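Why do we bother with a discrete structure alphabet at all? Because it lets us treat a fold like text: something you can write down, compare, and reason about line by line. To make this less abstract, here is a complete entry for Indoleamine 2,3-dioxygenase. Read it the way you would read a sentence in a foreign language you are learning: slowly, and without expecting to understand everything at once.
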Amino acid sequence: MTGTKDEDWFDIVSTAVEITAGPAFKALIESIHSVREDNIRAVIENLHLAHTQLDKIRKLLPRMFENCDPAVFYWKIRKYLAGSEGTAGLGLFNGLEYRGVGVNNNERRYYMGATAGQSSTFPALDYFFGVTHHELDTSTNTKSAPNALLLKMRGFMPAPHRAFLNHLAQTANLRPYVLSKTASDPESQDVQELIKIFDACVHCIKLFRDNHIQIVTRYILTQAKRGPPEGWEDYRVKVEDQPPAADKAVGEETPKAKEEEAEDEGAGMKGTGGSELMPFLKGNRDETNAAKIIAPIKY
């Protein structure tokens, strides 16, 4: 849409994540079958295979910085990802009119913008590892019903993907299996290995979501705070002005001070899918971390 290498790279990295997840899914489906047979060694082996792919996935996202300039993304590309729902700030107060559609041939429709949440990859991983996402009542700081926005995004997925997620919701058995083994024979060497590799897989997903928070901070929150640079239509950040590809080694925990700063910067900012960016992303990350069998790190 923009003819920039930055847009190409944004799509390439996003697609690479999807492709890399494929072998992990195959191993995780095999692990579900192995749980049914109570074959703990097969479960462990398949989780190791899945972990290899999940580790690759979480290392892919920081590569976004290689060829996608944050300023170009925010000021040139992102507007094309916005939908027609909740976009009054962009001048779309009444959605979009689809001529020749509907009873009056001029039906107005309201669609969410493009967002990674519409991918079935991470909802599937959440089911595999027993990660649950809930609505947060900010007035009481309590969680209740399933996250409505994540459920709404299902409507933007291909029908076979939705069917797959619905099936996983009924058949995923990994976390209950690990918990049952932990309760019945916690000293067993196999059980200890099972816990370790299960938590390692969950930690990879958690680290991916850490990296996603960093991406959103630099590509959206920081850019919005700075405002458009002069002559932004042809803007490129000079290489020497760019932050390094990562402030820390990939896999390390995000410094708490940086997260607090990002949260302050992101107050009220919405994603292209309509979510409150920082609360939504941090909530997903923390709920992922909580799925670990061994006491998760607290923030």
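What the structure line is telling us, in plain words: The chain has one domain: 5-83+116-289. The first helix runs from residue 5 to 36.
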